[in-house]
Amino acid sequence: MEVKTSLLDNMIGVGDMVLLEPLTEDSFLENLRKRFDHNEIYTYIGSVVISVNPYRSLPIYSPEKVEEYRNRNFYELSPHIYALADEAYRSLRDQDKDQCILITGESGAGKTEASKLVMSYVAAVCGKGQEVNKVKEQLLQSNPVLEAFGNAKTVRNDNSSRFGKYMDIEFDFKGDPLGGVISNYLLEKSRVVKQPRGERNFHIFYQLLSGASDDTLKKLKLDRDFSKYNYLSLDSAVVNGLDDATSFRTVKNAMQIVGFMEDEVQSVLELVAAVLKLGNIEFKPESRLNGTDESRVKDKNDLKEMCELLGIEQTVLERAFSYRTVEAKVEKVSTTLNVAQAYYARDALAKNLYSRLFSWLVTRINESIKAQTKTRHKVMGVLDIYGFEIFEDNSFEQFIINYCNEKLQQIFIELTLREEQEEYVREGIEWTNIEYFNNAIICDLIENNQNGIMAMLDEECLRPGTVTDETFLDKLNTVCAEHQHFESRLSKNSKFLNDHSLPHSCFRIQHYAGKVLYCVEGFVDKNNDLLYRDLSQAMYKASHSLIKLLFPEGNPAKVNLKRPPTAGFQFKASVGTLMRNLQTKNPNYIRCIKPNDKKAAHIFTESLVCHQVNYLGLMENVRVRRAGYAFRQAYEPCLERYKMLCKRTWPHWRAPAREGVEVLMADLQVPTEEFSYGRSKIFIRNPRTLFFLEERRRQCLEDLATLIQKIYRGWKCRTHFLLLKKSQIVIAAWYRRYAQQKKYHKIKSATTIVQSYTRGWQARKLLRELKHQKRCEEAATTIAAYWHGTQARMELRRLKQEVRNKHAVTVIWAYWQGTKARRELRRLKEEARRKHAVAVIWACWQGLKVRREYRKFFRANAGKKIYNFTIQRIMQKYFFGLKKTLPSMSPIDKNWPARPYRFLDGAHTELKRLFHLWRCKKYRSQFTEEKKAVYEEKLEASELFKDKKSLYPSSVSQPFKGDYLEISKNPKYQKLNSSVEEKVLLADVVNKINRANGKGATRILLLTKKNVVLADQKTGQVKASVALPDLTSVSVSTQNDGFFALKLKEGSASAVKGDFLLSSEHLIETITKLHHIGSTASDDGEQLNVDITDEFLVQFKQDKVCVKFIQGAPKNGNGVSCKRKNNRLLEVSVPASA
Ligand SMILES: Nc1ncnc2c1ncn2[C@@H]1O[C@H](COP(=O)(O)OP(=O)(O)O)[C@@H](O)[C@H]1O
Ligand SMILES: [Mg+2]
């Protein structure tokens, strides 16, 4: 790729008009045309960029182009808007100068596009990062939103900005964008209700109707058909190359990126829909009694829908369209509106609604994009204001717009032409004045506070009495008639009376850019910008939050009787602020030129361009530029910046700065015609010289940087080296120590090994020698032994031979004798065998004969003997087996081994019995006398009661203790014990049954060998003592009770008191003992009778009572009860044992 290094390379025409030769209007236009034909739409005048609208997309805005222009000097590459943007951005970033980019030109010249290009370039080259990218994206996406609401198709431009826009982009010190602030200027709101022929309303209306979904439209109560809406002009609803539906989606998306909430977007759309609906509200006259007409809403459907959309009460709005309340200081007067006034009110409402919505959008966008940090910002302002406009019908809007353009031109003149020339004079630079048209006079005509057109208009609007556009024109005619830039048919001197191109109701201003005829109709109204208070109050009452917000003056609490400032006044004020703002910044100009009126590519209408070149003052611009100096700078900053280029000024220059700069320039051999010395500044004629200086400075800075780097690197390397060296010594020391240690250990171990080898070798050698010596000794011994052995063996052999010889003789003799003896023996044996055989045969014969004789005897006796023997063996085996399997010695063990043979059945059972008796005997023999007595007693009890009394079984397991009261030991019974002579055999507590009631009284019962004693339990006093012989019998029941009756012998001493009926816990024992003692005590051996019966008689003192035992219901515990049934019967109820 060819790298361009200057704008002079491959140039079409001249890239910088300053270089144009000769400089005439024709050559200027020719140069523009030539470049335009070759797609070179940008041309410089010094640092001003002229841009000719190509009306087609050119491939010069690619990312590669951005890279190409990035960080390059202005004059290095062919002219481009990017070069200007880069220059501005870099001076902002590097020199800390706030910048503004002023884009001027008439409508459709490409201002808005240019502003977008500048913004996109800056966005592309500035910093990156998530946060920065978000800011950039929001800044860029604010454009589509504002364009949708603020742009419209006009005859000049299909996407004409109908508002002025100034955007401050804020950067931090690094040059990263932080945010921005947008200011908007005067939206052309009259467009909302009426559009000139061939033009459209604002884009958003069409975008909403074409792009919104059916659902959204239904919600907004809208119809897709444009023709349904009065406010939408039909003749150019569809514009070539504009896709409203797609744009709608883009706008919605952009709103979302900028940070609009879903409901905010919805609110905005609702307002847009409300405006459309409002346009459809129509009125009809209704005659009143006093003859005036009053307006009434014709078809209330649209009104109703609009009210629903905005949440307004229908009657309130309806009333506001029929009446108008005028509030004076004290009273309120309500007048009716006629149809025309109603329409006016409707349109005013629509316009206000829309323009306020637009301002709200700008505020809302600002909220999103405003910089978050409070630190100082660098600012780049981009001004894209509506261009100069000349239409067939020019009204208040055009007047305002053109005024704004005049002001901008003024700034341009101020900064580039006048300021510059004045500076030359001030600085004492030789200078031939260049004539140019200064439009200050036109600005004065319009804005002068005393007699300016705007002041007149305001005066007229505020004046009491009837005010019309005509009275305003009259006023102008009187006040401004003298002005050379003002023309009117009715001006005082009537010098224009013959000018028929000037209608009566119009005036003409000769703007810097041409003459414009303004029709006064609507000026007063538009300037007043009146919205009846009833309407703003109706809007304030709406429940729709956004609409309420837009009409704060409708708040009845804040009634302000003062008139609001007029539209003209407001605009003038904001333009004034803007101008002051721009003046504080470094300006960068883009002057847009429109090549033709057809919005068509490739057409260059020379006359049109010529006109623009003239009024933009471009020729003068070139001239001033050529005569003047491209660059100036005060001596101090200049010296500060370039002093490193000269040895004498570097690093310090002590003398005045101007001298330093002179020395510097001389040293650098800059040609003297290239610069001039002013009083406080140096003026450099050519940018080239500046670039030369800058380039030298850059190189020098590089050298300086290299030097600093060199020294720093040297220092860094040295420090590093020293560190390395120090470390190396430490490491070396450690390593050497380690190596020496290792070597020493190696040598030591080697020495040990060598030593051990040597020692081993020596030892082995010694061993070998010793072994050899020993072997020699052994060998000698062995040889001697062998020798002796050989000798001995030889002797032995000789002796053996001798013996063998002798022995052989003996053996042979023996053999001979043997042979003889064996022969003899054989003969004798033969003989004996023969004799034996004969004997055997004899014996066999005899045996055979005997056996034949005895066979019958054997059969009769032998079987019996065998049988006996077998039986004997079996018995023996049985007894031995039994011995081993005998059961234990316990008498109650029931085990007995099984019988092995049936024939032993009887013996086996007998043996079992015998064994049992034997072991019982054995068991008994172990008993002591006492134990025996106990058992005997138990036996006696069994004989007495077993199977006779149900109480018995429970007594079996209870030992018979006898003395339950431990009477001899217990001190309580000491007295009682001593009163009884005999040994106490039984002492127990019993109940003595009272015959009167059957209840018992406790008594102590003592039993001795001779007496039965009853004593009081508490006192131990003897109550009765019965000698045993006086007892005849004892009666008990068969049941489970402890009752017994002691019956006494009739006539005996004891019988006086009668029988005793008692009850005892130990009945069985008591009776057994009584029986036992009774039988042993009686002299005559008479037994004591024990009667066991359930009914017996007891002889009490007087009479006999029958005691009867009956079985009661089973009960737990001892529940025996004794009851007296009558005088003769005691009934004892014994519960059946469980
Ligand atoms: N640099 C450009 N490249 C291509 N087309 C352009 C360029 N500048 C302007 N245009 C075309 O001209 C039209 C009008 O431009 P615009 O910037 O809206 O004019 P202005 O803002 O000055 O009224 C744009 O819609 C676009 O089609
Ligand atoms: Mg524009």
Keywords:
alpha+beta; 15% strand; binds magnesium ion; elongated; binds adenosine-5'-diphosphate; 31 strands; eight-stranded mixed beta sheet; seven-stranded mixed beta sheet; single chain; 1138 residues; 31 helices; 50% helix
Which secondary structure elements does this structure contain, and how are they paired or packed?
Elements: H1 25-37, E1 42-45, E2 48-52, H2 63-69, H3 81-95, E3 99-104, H4 111-125, H5 130-150, E4 151-152, E5 160-161, E6 164-171, E7 177-185, H6 190-193, H7 203-211, H8 214-219, H9 244-258, H10 262-279, E8 283-287, E9 293-297, H11 300-310, H12 314-320, E10 323-327, E11 332-336, H13 339-369, E12 378-384, H14 396-427, H15 440-447, H16 453-462, H17 469-479, E13 486-488, E14 506-511, E15 514-519, H18 523-528, H19 533-540, H20 545-550, H21 567-583, E16 586-593, H22 606-615, H23 618-627, E17 631-634, H24 635-642, H25 657-668, E18 675-677, E19 681-684, H26 687-884, H27 905-925, H28 929-945, H29 952-956, H30 974-979, E20 986-993, E21 1000-1007, E22 1011-1016, E23 1022-1027, E24 1031-1036, E25 1043-1048, E26 1060-1064, H31 1067-1081, E27 1089-1092, E28 1095-1099, E29 1104-1112, E30 1121-1126, E31 1129-1135
Parallel strand pairs: 2-16, 3-12, 3-16, 24-27, 29-31
Antiparallel strand pairs: 1-2, 4-5, 6-7, 6-12, 8-9, 10-11, 13-14, 14-15, 17-19, 18-19, 20-21, 20-26, 21-22, 22-23, 24-25, 25-26, 28-29, 30-31
Helix pairs in contact: 3-4, 4-5, 5-7, 5-9, 5-13, 7-9, 10-11, 10-13, 12-19, 14-15, 14-21, 16-17, 24-25, 28-31
Residues 111-112, 160-161, 384 line the site of magnesium ion.
